[in-house]
Amino acid sequence: MASRENRRALAELVTLVGDNPAQLERARALRAQVNERVATLQGLIDLQGAQGMAAAQRAGAVGTGFAQMQRINAATEQILAEERVLLRQRRAEAERRASLTTSIVIAGILVPLVLLGVLLWGLARENRRARGLEREARATVVRLAESIEQRDRLAEQRRLLGAYAGLLQSCHDRNEAMAVTARVIEQLLPHAAGRCYVLRASQNLAETFAQFGTEVIPSDAMLLPDDCWALRRGQPHRSGGHGGHVHCRHVHPEGSPDSAWMLCVPLMAQGTSLGLLHLHGLHGGDEEATTLVEAIAEQLSLSLVNLQLRETLRLQSLHDPLTGLYNRRYLEEHLQREILRCQRRQKPLAVIMLDVDHFKRFNDRYGHAGGDALLARVGQTLRELVRNEDVACRYGGEEFTLVLPETDRETALARAEVIRAAIGSTTVLHAREIIGPNTASLGLAMFPDDAQVADELLQLADAALYRAKHAGRNRVIGHGQPA
């Protein structure tokens, strides 16, 4: 039984050390030695059974059993020693592997933690970046809204300035141009107030032609050019607010708040000062407002120049250049309007036709220059003797026409006599020679007694004039009056 257990144990040992060739060799040698020892012991047992205990003891005493056991013990110790070494190695390897496993486990724990930290840091950074982008987006939206608002405001300003330019081209005089300018400024700068000044032809005084807004900082109604820095320097002048504290003398900002501003923009064209735009307000007045006022001033300046040129051309087209009186074209336009006005008011109107006597003979004697000098002197006499509401015209050649509104026949005849006498006593200095006097003949027709139409009145007055000439000249004859 014991021998079977030993063999099974040795077989198991050989199997266990099969992965180690040296130990396998030692295990096999130990198994052989054990088998040899078992065989020896079996022989002694058999001897004891056959010859008795004494014989077996004698055989065992003289046998090799002790040496066998020593070899078995030595082999066993060698195997055990090698196994202990291997066990220590395995334990060290196991500890190393355990440490490695622990390190791997710790690393496996730390790496996800680090990755999680990196992820959280990245998320936090991305969150900060997203918040920054959101702030930038909101700021961009605000700027975009401001840009759209500014674009719409500038578009509206351009539209108003375009309409303003069109209105200026249709204005008939400075008063209309100034009134249109005041309305446009009120639309473009509703919080501003001010005045539009125009310089007199003498350039020594500027008068208020239009006023807009509620004046909170008084400005003089009339000013001298030296009272305004803009007129002195020929460029816009800003004061108050962020524009400095050098005020024009025509402005009186005493008691106004620090935010109050004043702006003067000269009206200039072709190097000539025409007037001034003055604006002020309690707030606003930024660069945009200054730019707007400058654009308005530029257009208004051009309009004023065009109006002056237009008025000059109109006057030239309606006046006779030699005598300074109105010409026949103006008479034809004006006479019918005066007739209608007197008709509405139920007042009379007188038309006087005047012709210089013997003018051809005078012209032949003194030349055309002398004739022109005489006609100019007659024109001057007529200008001096007519009223503001009367119209004196050069009808053509040496013939003149007077329109006397709201004048009855007796008064018209009396005034015609005064004019005839004045012309009859008039002399002319020409070529260092005093020539004259010369006489004139006059014919009179009345509205509504004689005629009610302009052309018919002129014909009747002209017919009365020729009757005066045929009656001996130098006299006044009215229509229906005997010569």
TrEMBL record:
Reactions performed catalytically: 2 GTP = 3',3'-c-di-GMP + 2 diphosphate
GGDEF domain segment(s): 347-481
Keywords, alphabetical: Membrane, Transmembrane, Transmembrane helix
TM region positions: 98-124
InterPro entries linked to this entry: CHASE3, Diguanylate_Cyclase, GAF, GAF-like_dom_sf, GGDEF_dom, Nucleotide_cyclase, Rev_trsase/Diguanyl_cyclase
Cofactor(s) the record lists: Mg(2+)
One GO BP: cell adhesion involved in single-species biofilm formation
GO molecular function: diguanylate cyclase activity
E.C. code: 2.7.7.65
Organism superkingdom: Bacteria
Root EC class: transferase
Gene Ontology cellular-component terms listed: plasma membrane
PANTHER family: DIGUANYLATE CYCLASE DGCM-RELATED, REGULATORY COMPONENTS OF SENSORY TRANSDUCTION SYSTEM
Entry-linked NCBIfam families: GGDEF
Protein's name in the database: diguanylate cyclase
